[in-house]
Amino acid sequence: MTLEELKTPYDPNWCPGCGNFGIWTAEKNAAVKEGWDNTNTTTVAGIGCHGHIVNFIKLTSFEGLHGRAIPVASGIKFANNRLNVLVHVGDGDCFGEGGNHFIHACRRNHDLTVILHDNSLYALTAGQTSPATPKGMKTKSSPKGSTDDPVFPMALAITSGATFVARAYSGDVEQLTQLIIKANKHKGFAFIDVLQPCVTFNKICTSSFYKENTYYLDESYDPTDKQAALLKAQEFGEKKIPLGIFYKEERPTVESAFPQIAQIPLIDQEPKLDSLTDLFKKYI
Amino acid sequence: MENDNNIVSIKIGGPAGTGVKSVGLMLAKIAARSGYHICDNTEYPSLIRGGHNIMQVNFSTEVVTAPSLKSDLLIAFDQLTIDLHSDELHSGSGIVYDIDANLDLSKIGDGVSRYGIPLKKLALEAGEKNIFVNIVALSAATGLLGGNLETFKKLIEEEYGDKGEEIVNADKKAADLGYSYAVENYKDDLRDYMKVIDSFSSPISYMILSGNEAAALGAISAGMQFAAIYPMSPINNVLHVLAANQEKFGFVYKQPEDEISAINMAIGASHAGVRSMTATSGGGFCLMTEAYGLAGITEVPLVIIDGMRGGPATGLPTWSGQGDLQMVLHAHQDDFPRIVLAPGDVEETYYMVKDAFHIADKYQTTVMVLMDKNLCENDRTMAFPDLSKIEINRGKFTKEKIDDYFRYKYEDDGVSLRSIPGSGNFFIANSDEHGELGYSTEEIEERNKMMGKRMQKLITCEKEDMKDPVIYGPENADITIVSWGSNKGSIVEALKSFSNVNYVHVTWMNPLPVGFLTTILSKAKHVIDIECNYTGQLADLIREKTGINIEDKYLKVDGRVIYPEEIVEKLNTVKGVKK
Question: Is A284 in contact with B207 (Cβ distance < 8 A)?
Answer without folding.
Answer: yes
